[in-house]
Amino acid sequence: MNSKWTTARLKDLALINRESYSRSDGWDFVNYLDTGSITKGVIDKIALIDLRHEKLPSRARRKVAPYDIIYSTVRPNQEHYGIIRHPVANMLVSTGFVTITAKEGVDAQYLYYYLSQPQITTYLHAIAEQRVSTYPALNVSDLEELPITVPPLRIQQEIGEMLSCLDAKIALNKRINENLEEQAQAIFKSWFVDFEPFQDSDFVESQYGWIPQGWRLGRLGEFIEVTSGKRPIVKTNQRTPNNKVPVIGASRVMGYTNESLFDDRVLVIGRVGTHGVVQRIDFPCWPSDNTLVIKSQFYEFAYQVLKRIDYSSINRGSTQPLITQRDLRNQVIVVPPESVLRRYEDVASSLLEVVRNNLRENQTLSSLRDTLLPKLMSGEIEVPVV
User: Fold this and answer.
1) Is residue 366, in this structure, part of any structural domain at all?
2) Of 119, 116, 84, 105, whose CA–CA distance to 156 is shortest?
3) Is 241 inside a domain boundary?
4) What are the pLDDT digits (tens) for 234-279?
5) Is the CB of residue 283 less than 8 Å from the CB of residue 235?
6) What is the Cα–Cα distance from 221 to 6, expressed in whole angstroms?
7) How far, in Å, CA of 115 to CA of 81, rounded?
8) DSSP per-residue string spanning 17-57
9) 25/106 same-domain check
């Protein structure tokens, strides 16, 4: 470590739980973030609560200011943390978070990335597991006493800016992908639900309403092959040199294994438990035993159809939701001529190719960020200061 770098406790560098909400604030509404709605800096959702008609959750108490860091004290290994660079109006976060406000002379982004290091997560989770409670949890003092390596402010700023630029590009690519996904979905609805490009055709009556002449009702099984995933023999929570293949659960990657079950592109949905999430997978993977795996030559058409299914209507589970291959194949759909299907595949595939390129770029950027992070924080890589 450079001789100009020092070590300090977090409480010497930041204010902890700086400000709380009270009724005297007189807010009419609150934007509330709970601990499960942010992971590794990515916010899933913020709940808008109208205080004139709704009761505020008892844990919605902590205020956040620009560039405050929030860190969940429960199960640190789940990585529910982030930096709130630009909080929305009247934003509160759960008391399950510790809020961390950088003091003068400390760069908030540097502090955030320091706390996001995997070794810090591992260290804090080990402390949490020592607690005598129903689940691993940190005390505020555990974070306050955490030792932080501190370079001069200008170096902090350069490191924080470098890493935040990578995250900003990743976030931009995600927004572009969301827009492209919406376009593909809108085109599907226009063609196969509202029949807008086919209004000049004659229409015939069917069990599901009027459809263009030459179209018909059929079964989803005409267009898809369905199999069940399997339980991997080997599974690790983290990616390792020997276990690089993602294990796909009902809604997300749930671990890694040492071989693939599928090497070509597939669609994966939940068989047991979570339903309604349709995952495009175009890399070697191992879908778990709680999933159904779908192949189709009309891949994008099948994807959109799967997203529109009311899975609750075909649920066979009593205590736990369950969908069978047979019920999925038997879903009745409106079947267009093959020429229309191929046209849609061409249009949607061109949009989704951009999505795939952005995803690949994000994987590269994430890998670069994760490689740079510990080296920058230790001073192994020196940052040029302008």
Assistant:
1) yes
2) 105
3) yes
4) 999 888 889 999 999 999 999 999 999 999 999 999 998 788 899 9
5) no
6) 64
7) 9
8) S--B--GGG--SEEEEE-GGGEETTEE---EEEETTTSPPP
9) yes
> In sequence order, which residues have a C-beta less than 8 Å from that of residue 288 and are 6 or more positions away?
229, 230, 231, 232, 247, 248, 249, 250, 254
Give the Cα separation of 381 and 373 in Å (integer).
Answer: 10
> Which residue spans within 186-335 are E strands per DSSP?
203-206, 209-212, 216-219, 225-228, 245-248, 253-257, 266-270, 279-281, 286-287, 291-295, 332-335
**CA-closest candidate to residue 334, choices 225, 226, 222, 227:** 222
pTM of structure = 0.84
Q: Helix 108-115 to helix 338-378 angle, to the nearest 10 degrees?
A: 100
Phi, psi of 323 (to 5 degrees): -125, 135
Of 264, 332, 255, 259, nearest in space to 290 by CA: 255
Q: Could you tell me if 41 and 67 are in contact, meaning their C-beta atoms sit under 8 angstroms apart?
A: no
Three-class DSSP category at 204: strand
How far is residue 110 from each of residues 148, 150, 161, 376, measured CA to CA in Å? 11, 9, 8, 10
Does residue 111 lie within any of the structural domains? yes
Whole-number average pLDDT of the chain: 94
CA 337 to chain centroid: 36
Residue 132 has pLDDT above 90, yes or no: no
Over range 279-306, report the average pLDDT. 95
Where are the alpha helices (H) located in the chain, listed in sequence order?
Answer: 10-13, 108-115, 118-129, 140-144, 153-192, 299-308, 325-329, 338-378
**In which band, very low, low, confident or very high, does the pLDDT at 1 lie, cut at 50, 70 and 90?**
low
Q: Are residue 32 and residue 143 in the same domain, yes or no?
A: yes
CATH number at residue 245: 3.90.220.20
Bridge-based pairing state of the strands 203-206 and 209-212: antiparallel
Render pLDDT for 53-81 as a digit per residue (tens, 0 to 9): 999 999 999 999 999 999 999 999 999 99
348 is in which domain, residue-wise? Answer: 152-194+337-379
